[in-house]
Amino acid sequence: MSRVDACDPCLRRTELIARLSPRIERAGRGRAAYGRLLALPDDELISAMGANSDAKLHVARAAFAPDVARRRCDEAEVSAICRHAAGYPARLLELDDPPAVLHVAGDLSALEGACGGVEDVPAVAVIGARRATTYALDVAWTLGRDLAVAGVTVVSGMALGCDSAAHHGALEGEGRTIAVLAGGADVAYPASKRALHRRIQAQGCAVSELPPGAGVMRWSFPARNRLIAALAAAVIVVEGRERSGSLITADIAADLGRPVGAVPGEVTTPRSAGTNALLADGAAVIRDGRDALDLLCLPVRRRPPRVQREQPRPAPAPRPAVQPAPPLEPGLRQALAAVDDGADSPDRLALALDGDVAAATVALTRLELAGVLRRERDGSYSRRAR
Amino acid sequence: MLARLTTFAIDGLASRRITVEVDLRTGLPGFTIVGRGDAAVRESRERVQSAIRNSGFEFPNRRVTVNLAPAYLPKHGPGYDLATACGLLVASGQVPADDAERWAVFGELSLGGELRPCGGALAVAEGARRHGLHGLIVPRECAPEARLVDGVAVAGVSDLQGVAAILRGEPPPEAPMAPAAPEPAEVGEDLSDVRGHASPIRALTIAAAGGHNILLVGPPGTGKTMLARRLAGILPPLLSDEALEVTRIHSLAGLRQGRAGLVAARPFRAPHHSISASGLVGGGIHPGPGEASLAHHGVLFLDELSEFSRPALEALRQPLEDRHVTIVRGQRAALLPTRFMLVAATNPCPCGRGKRACECTSADHGRHRRRLSGPLLDRIDLHVAVEPPEERALTAPPVTSTREVRESVLRARDRQANRLTGTGRSCNADMPQAMVPPAADLPAEARDALRQAYARGTLSARGHSRVLRVARTIADLDGSDGIGAVHVLQAIGLRRSPDLEEQQAA
Predict the structure, then answer these.
(1) Cβ of residue B497 closer than 8 Å to a chain A Cβ
(2) Which residues of chain A have pLDDT under 50?
(3) S-S: B211 plus which of B235, B267, B309, B429, CB 3.0-4.6 Å?
(4) Closest partner CB to A351 (pick from B392, B474, B504)
């Protein structure tokens, strides 16, 4: 089922980058501008990496057999599409340094929205911190689900925390999702996300610029961030500190002219300092899936809008989870108001309502079952993203 | 000359009849004990020789062979001293043989001939009754415990001379008239010193009323341990046959020394988290009870649950499921009862700060969850958050007192006892599955709540029946015959809800 559609020079370039990876790692220590390096032509890249005298590298380059590279992709069941091929996502070409070959594990058609064809399905990146609050995880999941239900492809990095939550949400919404990986497309990184990696391949795809089996290096994370920014038509950061990887992605997206949105966080915690700074710089405020969809209509597109497609894709059936909940009865409304005022545990709610703990537990459980509240790890309750 | 005396060996929690055969032959003087004895049994030769001489008897200058039958059973401990000494006295004709057959003897000897107490007197007395013996001679300190068994004459004796007198047919010393009064329940800390914490107290009440396992989750210093220790005060008293079982186990473990009669208060065991698996569920060369069995009919409190070793926590699975544990060591198996209530306390996450201030990664949370997760957490029905009390609560009067809570627990237990008569169980946690009310009999609102909880992933399929047990207990506390929606909703609210990430990945 894998398809290799790559020309020899592009395969050669991919092989070179994989071989130079340790040198790029060393050269890039202390610098974040890996992307600039990847824009250099082969010979300049080799000399910039100080590999001119590396005899082994030259021997390997001379002996490089494109067919071997193609066979490796086939064996790993990874499709390879070079930037000269028709199926290559057109949006990636907007980068100064588009990857020579995009490796795809899973369903190739998930990429089509990013290919720039007539069947343009918009893709939105939902990214955020690995160490995330449950609030951010909840919002990332809900955004992923709502975008997926609306027929938007969800792009993210399959990292711990927000990224995985966004993918999970998209899978729950039965929409398409693309994981952009820092290692080979067939390698689940982090390893604990193996199950998610498998599910993403069934319902979308995992992509990477590195050949199958490649491990991750520190430089490959900012490098893959530029692919996330380029593949998506808009980027939403759910939670992130200042100078975090998510903000690098947002910067690249802004440079590419993509609209950037951010989910507001508390102004007192450093965990949301990055997203709040984005908002201060003019990023769109993202509160829910509707805000995220609005982001796609912002008039900051670099390319002219595409022609309307003739037959609209049938919209996926709405899932019961997003149907509006029936109105709450007065007692529960009162309890919910008290929870919003900070009485977020049975003890505090009982004090606030002058009732007993049993009644408070009943009210909180009713609100939890109604999908209004969720229970945190420490047993307190907070609002669920809707 | 051959003499036979009866004594008992402790095998697991039961006693096994041992016949001590003493044979005197002509030949080079010597003293041999056969029958798979351990070091303490071999050393008993020296104690017996000295004790016989120092009690004014004569140690036979013959070739002495002592056999502890049955020979296949390994014997350990000093409890065979007295039977060996008596056998020697009978075999050498210093004490007539006629009465020796009616009595069982059990005890350790000192070099001066005094009897020293040993653990397990209750189990030995039960063995004596089972084998239809007339009476049992034990060290004086062990007598009150042995007298708990009806149908066996128990003679509490202080030295070898006294034992010889009874074997000669003299009347045993009068039992002290004061019957074994139940020891006064230890006065623990009272719930009335607690400010705030209304919901943990409510959860502890439910746990005590139904015998449910409970987990207290909260940041360090919020009062998890303080609350758990006050649980002992609100538990119902031991029933008489429960007390007998507890006393037997504690006596075997050597916890009853210096204390007479039945254990009155439910055991509260709080082992340190460095405990090994065999320390927790039992083990040793001669399989003996661990903390889980010592907490039988009581509370096993595991503070800092996530710090316990993985093997130790895994070992708790069988005891929690089957309410007993089978320990096998060197071809011997022992069945130890473990009908305890598990009370555990833990931090919400490795950093302990919880919620917003938490600095743990989702990988840290995953590790923390995996340490505790699986069958163990699934068997803990009540998960309750313990948080620092509100300022308002600190100045308010206490929520309740130990006496008040204990009374409501007792009323709930009474209701359960009426319902469970004839089943041999005493609380809802142990209720036979067939008696758990089927969900179909619940009011519509309660059925809806269960269905929603299941659909939202808050409740697992296994959790379903356990929630109903807890709901039954809450209804008992409310004095209600039927289970209502409020009871089910509270039970769901107290059950563990899976982590957000677990829910998302599901």
Answers:
(1) yes
(2) 117-118, 299-314, 316, 318-323
(3) B429
(4) B392
User: Are B369 and B313 within 8 A, CB to CB?
Assistant: no
CATH of domain B2-167: 3.30.230.10
CB contact under 8 A, B504 and A365: no
Which residue among A130, A195, A361 places its CB closest to the CB of B199? A361
Q: Does A54 fall in a domain?
A: no
Cβ of B25: how many Cβ atoms within 10 Å? 12
Q: Do B499 and A377 touch (CB under 8 A)?
A: yes
A166, part of any domain: yes
HEC profile of B267-315: CEECCCCCCCHHHHHCECCCCECCHHHHCCCCEEEECCHHHCCHHHHHH
Range of the domain at A249: 76-308
Contact B362 A161 (CB under 8 A): yes
Residue B347 has pLDDT above 70, yes or no: yes
CB contact under 8 A, A369 and B497: no
Cβ pair B213, B320 in contact under 8 A? yes
Across the interface, which of B389, B492, B505 has its CB nearest the CB of A365?
Answer: B492
Residue type for position B346: T
**Total domains present in chain A:** 2
Contact of A153 with A178, CB cutoff 8 Å = yes
Nearest residue in chain B measured CA to CA from A169: B504
Q: What is the ipTM of this complex?
A: 0.83
Within chain A, residue ranges assigned H as helices are: 8-27, 34-38, 42-48, 55-62, 66-75, 134-149, 162-172, 194-203, 220-231, 245-255, 273-280, 289-296, 330-340, 346-353, 357-369
Model pLDDT, residue A29: 63
Which residue would you say has higher pLDDT here, B183 or A238?
A: A238
Residue B312 has pLDDT above 70, yes or no: yes
Architecture of domain B196-505: 3-Layer(aba) Sandwich (3.40)
Query: CB-based contact (8 Å) between B397 and chain A?
Result: no
B82 touches chain A (CB under 8 A): no
CA triple B403-B406-B412, angle to 5 deg: 145
Distance of CA A233 to the CA centre of its chain: 12
